[in-house]
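User: As part of a screening pipeline, I want to sanity-check one entry by hand. Below is the sequence and the SMILES for adenosine-5'-triphosphate. Please return the complex as structure tokens so I can compare it with the automated output.
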Amino acid sequence: MTVRETGHARAASLEFHGVTKRYGRGESAHGAVNDLSFAVPAGAICVLVGPSGCGKTTSLKMVNRLIEPTEGQILLDGVNVMTENVTALRRRIGYVIQQVGLLPHLTVGRNVAIVPSLMGWSKQRQSARTDELLSLVGLDPERYRGRYPVQLSGGERQRVGVARALAADPPLMLMDEPFAAVDPIVRERLQDEFLRLQHELAKTILFVTHDIDEAIKMGDLIAVMEAGGRLAQFGSPDSVLAHPASDFVAQFVGEDRGLKRLSLVTIADLSLEPSAARPGLPTFGPGTKLRDALSVLLAADTSGGVALDDAGKPRGFVTVDAIASALAEGRGTVANP
Ligand SMILES: Nc1ncnc2c1ncn2[C@@H]1O[C@H](COP(=O)(O)OP(=O)(O)OP(=O)(O)O)[C@@H](O)[C@H]1O
Ligand SMILES: [Mg+2]
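Assistant: Here is the complex for your manual check:
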């Protein structure tokens, strides 16, 4: 059975409307999350990013009702999650927690099949789905399905965690620092694999990290949160880098935000001086990232190259200066999806 045949195309929209979570009463009351509002279209990855204690995990847990909001509403496909049967709701939401949380006494195969078995799938369907998902996350089912979590590396455990969250083909995935427990090289590989997977699955994903670089890489949208559980900015990674809404956001995204944008903005986003074909100079397709164009220009030791349009015709002349000034002016901002 291929992934396509399992009907995974379902993805849900997710909306926060004035969501607040307060702990304690009276004098000692404090807000973990404060009047949070944003909307994630079906099939998009939204990353909640911000410093420790700003309310990211609390926001995530209010979606699957591990925590109940004090005020406001969370809508999954337009339906207030508080009005749904909590068990049915959780089965529709894949959840990857930090430290993965695999059950140590169950094999990898049984860990992945937890939700399908709770849903009463036949043994045959469960094992077919398990093998399919293990392959999908890059683990050979023959080798891994019978192992116990303790017999896996950190990166392999993370992959099993992702497979388990995908098992019942949920329209929404909640991922709380899913790649935080592994070293930077493994993390980067898991991020790349996950983005490739998402390209095919097109789930709606709410993803938590405290790492702005991970947020920029993974998010179609990012919600920057600050102390007190407040939303500091919401938008595409590029719009947040190009136009930080406050000093807090500017500081949080870092002084090198111009450089970060290099890997987001493409040649197609630049307005350029028209150019004819110039034999001998490098050419760039419209999807070329500015970072890649810049390294080609610097390596070729040339003052410029030719940007091509979709049809492969010369569209304009790209120079190092044009790239630098586009970044400085915050031009080429990609609209929100
Ligand atoms: N059960 C609780 N009772 C009181 N306060 C709580 C409770 N749970 C969380 N908090 C507080 O709510 C705030 C938000 O916590 P939360 O776990 O959502 O932060 P976070 O952004 O996920 O942080 P981290 O990056 O460290 O995981 C924190 O100040 C925390 O101390
Ligand atoms: Mg947290």
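Points to compare against the pipeline: The longest strand covers residues 30-40. The pocket of magnesium ion (ligand 2) is lined by residues 56-57 (CB under 6 Å).
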